[in-house]
Amino acid sequence: MSVASSRLAIHSSPITVTFLGTASAMPSSTRNHSSLAVRLGSDVWLFDCGEATQHQIQKSTVKMGKIEKVYITHTHGDHIFGLIPLLAGCLNGNGGIAGGAEDPRESINTDKPHLEIYGPLGTRAYVRNALTYTHTLLSRPFVVHELRFPFDPQSGDYTALPRHPSESPLGKNISQVGGVWQDVYKDEIVSVSAAPILHSVPCIGYTLTEAPVPGKIDPKKYIPGIKRTNTPLSVMRQLQAGESVRLSDGTVLQGPKPRVGRKIVILGDTYDPSPMIPIAENADLLIHEATNAHLPGLVSNTRDDDTYESVQKTAMERGHSTPQMAGSFAKRVNASSLILNHFSARYPGNDDVDPEAKMIMDAIGSLAAVEFGRPVVCARDLMSVDIRIPPVDH
Ligand SMILES: [Zn+2]
Ligand SMILES: [Zn+2]
């Protein structure tokens, strides 16, 4: 199936987001390091790939073989340590051949469709160095595109190592224009733009936008007029695109108005994502970190002198957000829904089975909801949500 035809199916199906890991710096028995999968039709795009993402995929309904793109928000280990094993796993890269026998992976055709990786400066060097020094050969090619900040070198690979045998030479270095990286990926149906978000290291937020969805056309409404005036049937194409057509007798046919496509905003670690505002407004779903919360009486290691202000100050100093900060950003960009992720290890992720954990996560959700003005969901590992096309424009 071509990219275009497989993408077309997206318009008529839910976009599914599966949280593979929802922990911050320290993973726990109930939360893995950061990663989430977005399923677009049959394709899978990953956002971040923390340690053991491959294991989480195996526990989920996400198919390894369908991973087409990986978007990295920043190169902190809890967001990228799982990338090399993931590449080895889904591009058949484990093991070597001893005794000088030929390994077909030594000379791979990098013109074949490749797995695309997007990330900040250092992503390419990290992947290339890690694959090279671990003697990992892959049976499919990959390419790394880097989103370069204005203070980064705008060209070059940031490593003296030559390209890995499976690495395509087509890796782009994409400069910011007007504060954003517009359409780093774009096809007829979906596009991805990005913008910086403030963290302790260079960090990127991504917006995935679906193109306008063609309205349902009812031929019965148009055929009589088209026949009466001997108009070529090819005008149906214009009508399907939502355009109006004037027939020879003066009748004007109006095609169904396309509906606004879905928009998903996925942030990495941040204490201030405001540079995302131009590309984050009116999202159907915003995914925002909420690493630290002030939960006196609920979390046992709350210190007596902790206040909301002191917790927020500490969170921000470490480059992170509280639930209230996430809630107010969601309101500011007029998001339709908000899901929190990237939780401190002190907030357990088994709130579906443990009433105490549920109390904590409900409290975190409520803190964000007060600012947002709508209910807020706290992500749990392996939780999936479907984003459907709203029935009317919004
Ligand atoms: Zn993190
Ligand atoms: Zn980080």
From TrEMBL:
GO cellular component terms, semicolon-separated: nucleus
MF terms in GO: 3'-tRNA processing endoribonuclease activity; metal ion binding
InterPro entries: RibonucZ/Hydroxyglut_hydro, RNase_Z/BN
One Pfam family of this chain: Anti-Pycsar_Apyc1
Cofactor entry: Zn(2+)
The name this protein goes by in its record: Uncharacterized protein
Subunit structure: Homodimer.
Keyword field: Endonuclease, Hydrolase, Metal-binding, Nuclease, tRNA processing, Zinc
The organism's place on the tree of life at top rank: Eukaryota
HAMAP family: RNase_Z_BN (MF_01818)
